[in-house]
Structure formats: structure tokens, C-alpha cells
């Protein structure tokens, strides 16, 4: 019985890992099929969409979406090629760059958000009570605060 808390924690981790991996896989397929973008693309587009003037310095964007600078550069280059994002020299200094959504990028983000939200609601949120949602929010806010403080 002494290992019961540890096995329960292991079970919690395994269930979270499996469920989140499945949900991300389903989102990946739906976004590719219905919007022509990947889940990583959506993460970048949504972050830019929510930023002031739909733009952000590349370094800040990499931090926000938790991608390495090289991975972000690669993904943004694809989004530039697809005319969803433009990459501009920073006005602040000549060394940095800014990623900014194009009008097509704004439209694609809005359409993709509908797909994303409907899928998450259907597969995750609709079957949970408000109390369960509150517990999830409380738990992951604490986890996120811990990550940010390290």
C-alpha cells in the first residue's frame, strides 16, 4: 500500500499523456485536412493573432510557443512561403525580426480556431462538469507557474 500514491501519480501522468497525445493527433489531422496547416502552425498563428497588431518579435514568439529558435525559424519560413505570415526587420534594432500575420493569415487563423475549438469542446470539455474544469484549471495553473519560475 505504501506505493499507492506513487502508482496513482504514475497513472495520472499516463492517462494525461495518452489523452493529450490522442487529442493532439486528432487536432493535427483535422487542421491539416480542413485548414491546410499543422498544429504547430496553428500555435504560431494563434499566438500572433492574439498579439498587439498581430505581430511579435521572433525571440518572444519562440518563448511563447515554446519552440527552439531554429524550429520557429523553419516553421515561420513555411508560413511566409504560404503567405500567412510576413517576416520583417525589427524597427527596434537591425538584428532582430518580427513575424506578422498577413490578411490571409488572419482569415486562416479565424477559420482554424473554429475547427480547434469545436474539436476540443467535443472531445474534451463537453463531458466535464464545471467543477472538473475548475480542478483542471487550478492544477495546470500551478504546474505552469512552477515551469515559469524555474
UniProtKB/TrEMBL annotation:
Residues 1-145 form the HTH marR-type domain. GO terms for biological process: response to stress. InterPro entries: HTH_MarR-typ (IPR000835), MarR/SlyA-like (IPR039422), WH-like_DNA-bd_sf (IPR036388), WH_DNA-bd_sf (IPR036390). GO terms for molecular function: DNA-binding transcription factor activity. This is MarR family transcriptional regulator. SUPFAM superfamilies: Winged helix' DNA-binding domain. It comes from the Bacteria. PANTHER family: MARR FAMILY REGULATORY PROTEIN, TRANSCRIPTIONAL REGULATOR, MARR FAMILY. It comes from Scrofimicrobium canadense.
Amino acid at each position: 500500500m505504501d506505493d499507492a500514491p506513487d502508482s496513482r501519480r504514475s497513472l495520472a501522468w499516463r492517462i494525461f499523456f495518452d489523452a493529450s497525445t490522442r487529442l493532439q493527433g486528432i487536432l493535427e489531422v483535422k487542421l491539416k485536412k480542413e485548414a491546410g496547416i499543422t498544429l504547430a502552425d496553428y500555435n504560431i498563428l494563434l499566438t500572433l493573432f492574439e498579439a498587439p497588431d498581430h505581430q511579435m518579435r521572433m525571440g518572444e514568439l519562440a518563448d511563447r510557443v515554446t519552440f527552439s529558435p531554429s524550429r520557429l525559424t523553419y516553421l515561420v519560413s513555411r508560413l511566409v512561403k504560404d503567405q500567412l505570415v510576413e517576416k520583417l526587420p525589427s524597427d527596434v534594432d537591425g538584428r532582430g525580426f518580427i513575424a506578422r500575420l498577413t490578411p490571409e493569415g488572419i482569415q486562416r487563423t479565424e477559420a482554424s480556431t473554429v475547427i480547434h475549438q469545436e474539436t476540443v469542446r467535443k472531445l474534451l470539455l463537453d463531458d466535464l462538469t464545471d467543477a472538473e474544469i475548475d480542478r483542471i484549471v487550478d492544477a495546470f495553473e500551478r504546474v505552469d507557474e512552477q515551469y515559469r519560475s524555474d
